[in-house]
């Protein structure tokens, strides 16, 4: 028999965080007010070892508490596979609750063989208000089935346990949100301020079963945890990709959020620019296909300058093809971009396969740790065709699913683009003199893009390239972008 050991619980808590089963940020919730923590236990089906551990622990919990029941029933849908495993391990017959009654045939809500008076244990993944558990309980009860207990993986501690208790159901959770927060903090994965921000928020948002907040309307609760209020140091810890952590840390220690767009056509000019402006930038952005005299020596030299001045290289390739083509465009051809660019940009038009295609262009898993992509969710060009829905879908690709570990951020023009603070907002179209160029580029000031539009890194091209003294211009842009960031996080 598996018992619940403290080490096992800790290891599982860390693992759940690693696989993105929960994360911190600024997330839209069913209940209306944005939450600083988001759980998505749907991902665990992709990790059989995690499924195994979670269900072993649920079974251990059931045994420890001596919860005996005739049936077991999962709350649809995420908990269904967990309930199945519990049923198998315990040899307790399962009941399946339909979310919608069949329109034809028997119109049954509960599938499985049972009799009125039978007992049933509920299995659930994450509990907020407890309303999902209660929906399942209601349907079971309407068939005469008796429910007294529910085992759950995570209790968000927002009143769910008390709400279900009012209906005669005892809730037993493997993890409370506090336990997860404290464990991550003890293990150095999150800052104390993150723990405090989430705890404060949760305490203020206790929920009734009907979704209303205890203590009245909370629509105006400020979320201290909003991405634009957090420092780059804190966000480094929240990032899911190793390269993104590195970039946040680089920005914080070098004190720069300036990316220089080196749109020049001669290799030596790019190197000269990189040498002069290197001390002021966190990233150099290249368009390698505009360089007329490209050579391998250019790449070797560029890498040397990047190392000397401690900046990353972003090749603004804007990949946009099917996965198979993208993997070749990234890893092969005369530029072999994957071999030297720390980061690249990509359109989200092809969907998730764009990220998978890029990953496939890298030779091995280790290489992925040093590479990343910025996904385009908006453009600065006047009249571009991107709409709200496209923006939202791009954000989903960046933040959800198993490829989030390779995404470093989003190229966009506004802070509403995404909420997750472990990603970086990259914003082009920055110039001290606002306005438009004659080909549709629209410019905003450094202060405006950082403070009003949520940019974490501002991309500046001609604002520096066309200055009489590029070095001085780079220093000015660095100072102004950085001061705007400091002001943003201090408020
Ligand atoms: N760039 C934009 N706008 C966008 C995207 C990329 O300007 O929406 I996506 C690139 C193009 C150019 C740089 O390489 O950023 C901006 O250069 P200037 O600061 O010179 O306009």
Automatic annotation (TrEMBL):
Pfam family, one: Pribosyltran
UniProt binding sites for substrate: 263, 285, 380, 441, 461-462
Highest taxon, organism lineage: Eukaryota
Nucleus recorded as keyword: no
One Gene Ontology molecular-function label: orotate phosphoribosyltransferase activity
Keyword Transmembrane helix included in the entry's annotation: no
Keywords of this entry: Decarboxylase, Glycosyltransferase, Lyase, Multifunctional enzyme, Pyrimidine biosynthesis, Transferase
Any GO BP: 'de novo' UMP biosynthetic process
Active site residues of this protein: 316, 318, 321
InterPro entries listed in its UniProt record: Aldolase_TIM (IPR013785), OMPdecase (IPR014732), OMPdecase_AS (IPR018089), OMPdeCOase_dom (IPR001754), OPRT (IPR023031), Or_phspho_trans_dom (IPR004467), PRTase-like (IPR029057), PRTase_dom (IPR000836)
Listed EC numbers: 2.4.2.10, 4.1.1.23
Domain Orotidine 5'-phosphate decarboxylase, chain residue ranges per copy: 257-477
Pathways per UniProt: Pyrimidine metabolism; UMP biosynthesis via de novo pathway; UMP from orotate: step 1/2; Pyrimidine metabolism; UMP biosynthesis via de novo pathway; UMP from orotate: step 2/2
Family of this protein: In the C-terminal section; belongs to the OMP decarboxylase family.
Record-given protein name: Uridine 5'-monophosphate synthase
Native source species: Drosophila mojavensis (Fruit fly)
């Amino acid at each position: 028999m598996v018992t619940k050991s403290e080490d096992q619980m800790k290891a599982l808590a860390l693992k759940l965080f690693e696989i993105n089963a929960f994360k911190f940020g600024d997330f839209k919730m069913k209940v209306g007010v944005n939450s600083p923590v988001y759980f998505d236990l749907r991902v665990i089906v992709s990790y059989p070892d995690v499924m195994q551990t979670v269900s072993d622990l649920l079974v251990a919990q059931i045994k420890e508490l001596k919860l005996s029941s005739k049936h077991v029933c999962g709350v649809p849908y995420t908990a269904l596979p967990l309930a199945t495993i519990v049923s198998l391990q315990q040899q307790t017959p399962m009941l399946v609750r339909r979310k919608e009654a069949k329109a034809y045939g028997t119109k049954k809500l509960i599938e499985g063989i049972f009799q009125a008076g039978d007992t049933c244990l509920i299995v659930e993944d994450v509990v907020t208000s407890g309303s999902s558990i209660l929906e399942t309980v209601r349907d079971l009860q309407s068939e005469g089935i008796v429910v007294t207990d529910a085992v759950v993986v995570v209790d968000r501690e927002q009143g769910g346990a008390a709400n279900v208790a009012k209906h005669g159901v005892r809730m037993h959770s493997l993890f409370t949100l506090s336990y997860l927060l404290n464990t991550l903090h003890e293990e150095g994965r999150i800052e104390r301020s993150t723990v405090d921000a989430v705890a404060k928020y949760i305490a203020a948002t206790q929920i009734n079963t009907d979704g209303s907040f205890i203590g009245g309307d909370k629509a105006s609760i400020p979320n201290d945890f909003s991405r634009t209020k957090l420092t780059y140091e804190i966000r480094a810890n929240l990032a899911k990709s190793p390269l993104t952590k590195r970039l946040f840390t680089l920005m914080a220690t070098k004190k720069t959020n300036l990316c220089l767009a080196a749109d020049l056509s001669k290799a030596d000019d790019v190197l000269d620019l990189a040498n002069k402006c290197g001390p002021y930038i966190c990233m150099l952005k290249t368009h390698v296909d505009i360089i007329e005299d490209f050579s391998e020596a250019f790449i070797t030299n560029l890498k040397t300058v990047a190392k000397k001045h401690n900046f990353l290289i972003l090749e603004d390739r804007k990949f946009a093809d099917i996965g198979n083509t993208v993997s070749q465009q990234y890893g092969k051809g005369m530029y072999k971009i994957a071999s030297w660019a720390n980061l690249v940009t990509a359109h989200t038009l092809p969907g998730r396969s764009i990220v998978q295609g890029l990953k496939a262009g890298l030779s091995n898993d280790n290489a992925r740790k040093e590479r990343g992509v910025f996904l385009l969710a908006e453009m600065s060009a006047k009249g571009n065709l991107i709409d709200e829905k496209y923006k939202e879908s791009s954000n989903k690709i960046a933040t959800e699913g198993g490829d989030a570990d390779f995404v470093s951020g989003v190229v966009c023009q506004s802070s509403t683009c995404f909420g997750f603070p472990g990603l970086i907002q990259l914003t082009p179209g920055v110039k001290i003199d606002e306005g438009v160029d004659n080909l549709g580029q629209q410019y905003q000031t450094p202060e405006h893009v950082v403070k009003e539009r949520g940019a974490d890194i501002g991309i500046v091209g001609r604002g520096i390239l066309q200055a009489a003294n590029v070095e001085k211009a780079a220093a000015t842009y660095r100072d102004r972008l950085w001061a705007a960031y400091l002001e943003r996080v201090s408020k």
